[in-house]
Prior knowledge:
Layout: E1 11-13, E2 20-21, E3 35-37, E4 42-43, H1 49-52, E5 60-62, E6 69-71, E7 84-86, E8 91-93, E9 109-111, E10 118-119, E11 133-135, E12 140-143, E13 161-163, E14 168-171, E15 185-187, E16 192-195, E17 210-212, E18 217-221, E19 234-236, E20 241-243, E21 255-256, E22 259-260, E23 265-267, E24 272-273
Parallel strand pairs: 1-3, 2-4, 3-5, 5-7, 6-8, 7-9, 9-11, 10-12, 11-13, 12-14, 13-15, 14-16, 15-17, 16-18, 17-19, 18-20, 19-23
Antiparallel strand pairs: 21-22, 23-24
Amino acid sequence: EEICYFTEMSTIVLNNNKVQGTIPPCFGRFSKLGILGLTSNSIDLPFPDEAIEGWTNLKLLLLAGNLLEGPFPQSLTKLPALEELQIDSNSLTGTFPAFNRDDTPKLKVLFLELNGLTGSIPSDIFDIETFEHLNITGNSFNGSLPANIGQDFGNGNVLKKLDVGMNNLTGEIPESIYNASNLANLVLSSNNFTGQIRPDIFTSLFLLNSLVLDNNQFSGPVPETLFFKSQLNILTLQGNNFVGFISNSICDAKEVSSKQLRLQSLTLDCEEVTCDSSCCEEGTECV
């Protein structure tokens, strides 16, 4: 534990090594620590309270791909300077961590994917005005998405990426998401979402470039606006209850309003296509 004597360190990056065991309590001496990277090691729980209480300036914490097993360490939700936490690809259980704007007012990024977390998604994390990116893919969360996702804080909302795929979520897309003007990636695949996609989806979502809706229970017609949005690169719709007809011209990358379509990948129930080939055979309904 010779490292414990270097109390002035601001950065510790030991990613992809063979570090094992728990974090030493002496790490709490590193009051200037801003970055701690321990990705892809054999770190396990518990985390000593003495260590975490000293991380008052920690902004970036990387713990993905370790041996963290058991309930999510709620002490990590009390780090006042935390901006990004990557704790994906572990074996964490229990409910969604209790992040909120009082304890972590600067949080921007949270990666929880590929764990064993359950329960509903609380609304508190979406009250954090700096929050930009949530990835919870591959857990067992249930219930509906909070109604305050993408809420307007008076100067808009900074949410850019929302990935909730491969869970057990239900309900319709909250109205507030349609107003998240900075949203670029929306991944809702492999859940049990229902309802129709609003035809005016791009009224505020003008930066959206990836829309992944496959394997849910969405219904109704596919809005034509989805295919003529110049920023949209990826669109997956298969495995739903959509109805209608998709024209082959969508995949021809023709000039639309003096802008060329940028759609690179379109996945429907007929087949997966790219914009340099025909969408379906002539006269074939694609959804």
